[in-house]
Write a structure and sequence with these properties.
single chain, 435 residues, Fumarate Reductase Iron-sulfur Protein, Chain B, domain 2, FAD/NAD(P)-binding domain, 5-stranded parallel β-sheet, 16 helices, binds iron/sulfur cluster, FAD/NAD-bd_sf
């Protein structure tokens, strides 16, 4: 096993390929691709600039809507969004919009093209908790609009799910680091290794003079499967596998810290995108076999089609309509099998290792260490329409998965952009009243 197996799969365009692809775009008057993009990127606009070789202008157009294009260009479900809506898609000749976006963003980073003129940071002071897609988007948008923004991150590296959740072969950490450097260059400050709710509370942040606080902490608590035997050794959360494999790939921990031994027979319970990431990571870590266990049918699977197909290509097996009733252990207390209902009746299916990928929910560390922030019965933060994204506590906002439940990167970004606008309106109004 070596780290090369985690190398990015989806190769980039060369300049010639990118320009040739861009030239195929019809620059439609009423572009359906844009309607398919959750953040309504001006797709024909940037593709047109790219087709003429104007990389800087192409990037400036993308940046009007996105702070993370090198990431979106890689991990967005393009076939469901922009590309799937392109007029040429039905003929099987859809423009490869994701790869073009990624090309422009990578070119910009490599060539250091964009040097934005930034406003003075005089509009107010905003704290952003969490540095995943939502936090980075809010921070980037507000910094561009003249706010002094500080991101508080509990881990030693910023990026949240981008850094520790999405595997290297889909999203190289180098790309994440470079996108974060660009956000930093907008004047955003980062405080790392700082768990809000533990090292500092929301109340203390207000005492430090923040005008508004944004909670973008996502869904950090993975759900457990409540069946007999669930405490056996060898039953691990997928998010833990992905985190450990990620830091192993960055040479931060040794191989034996990754909870999977070579040759093991692996079962993944759940069939969403995290399950696909865990399955494909298990393949790369040298599992003997990998099976995804799902209680519904293939048609009900929540994973993105392309991820599912890649998993199939890599040899992952799928056990449809299979519900785990019990985990069975050996004499050492380690899992050895599941007992499950299957289309052929009840069966014992042997596994050496089980990874759970049945969803996650928000942690309550922040809301339990302050007052006035209401959550629903499952822990999701309740927010208002006006100002957009404000919680039940004045000046505290929330967005992304911690409000809307786990979604894709771009949907977290979309929600975060609206909340950034809500924060700007709120802070401006408060300052006006104070004046
Ligand atoms: Fe270009 Fe397709 Fe969008 Fe038309 S729909 S502007 S062809 S990418």
């Amino acid at each position: 096993m070596n780290n090369n197996t985690f190398k990015e799969i989806n190769e980039s365009f060369t300049i010639k390929e990118a320009i040739d692809e861009a030239k195929r775009c019809l620059n439609c008057k009423n572009p359906s691709c844009k309607k398919g993009c959750p953040i309504e990127n001006d797709i024909p606009g940037f593709i047109h600039q790219l087709s003429m070789g104007n990389m800087g202008d192409a990037m400036a157009i993308i940046n009007e809507k996105s702070n993370l294009p090198a990431i979106c260009g890689r991990v967005c479900p393009h076939e469901k969004q922009c590309q799937g809506h392109c007029v040429l898609y039905a003929k099987g000749k859809g423009i490869q919009i994701g790869k073009l976006e990624r090309f422009v963003a990578d070119f910009d980073t490599d060539m250091n093209l964009i040097r934005e003129r930034l406003p003075q940071k005089t509009r107010g002071k905003v704290a952003v908790i969490g540095s995943g897609p939502a936090g980075l988007t809010v921070a980037g948008d507000l910094a561009r609009q003249g706010f002094n923004v500080t991101i508080f991150e509990g881990q030693s590296e910023p990026g949240g799910v981008l850094m520790y959740g999405i595997p290297e072969y889909r999203l190289p950490k180098e790309v994440v680091n470079k996108e974060i450097k660009k956000i930093e260059a907008l004047g955003v400050n980062f405080v790392l290794n700082c768990l809000v709710g533990k090292q500092i509370t929301i109340d203390q942040m207000f005492e430090q003079g923040y005008d508004a606080i944004f909670i973008g902490t996502g869904t950090a608590l993975p759900k457990a499967l409540d069946v007999p035997g669930s405490k056996l050794r060898g039953i691990v959360q997928s998010s833990y596998l992905l985190h450990m494999a990620s830091i192993y790939n960055q040479n931060i921990v040794p191989r034996d810290m990754v909870p999977l031994e070579e040759g093991e027979k692996v079962g993944i319970i759940g069939c969403g995108n995290v399950a696909m990431d865990a399955a494909r990571t298990a393949v790369r870590m040298g599992a003997g076999s990998v099976s995804v266990i799902y209680h519904k049918t293939e048609a009900d699977m929540p994973a993105i089609q392309s991820e599912y197909q890649e998993a199939v290509k890599e040899g992952v097996q799928f056990l449809w309509q299979t519900s785990t009733l019990e985990f069975l252990g050996n004499e050492e207390g380690k899992v050895r099998a599941i007992r499950a209902t299957t289309p052929d009746g009840e069966k014992e299916i042997p596994f050496d290792r089980i990874f759970l990928a049945i969803g996650s929910r928000p942690a309550n560390r922040i809301v339990s260490t302050t007052t006035g922030i209401d959550v629903d019965e499952t822990g999701y933060v309740i927010v208002k329409e006006r100002p957009y994204g404000m919680t039940t506590r004045k000046g505290v906002f929330a967005g992304g998965d911690v409000v809307h439940r786990p979604h894709t990167v771009v949907l977290a970004m979309k929600a975060a952009k609206q909340v950034a606008a809500g924060i700007a309106q709120y802070v401006d109004a408060v300052k006006l009243l104070e004046a």
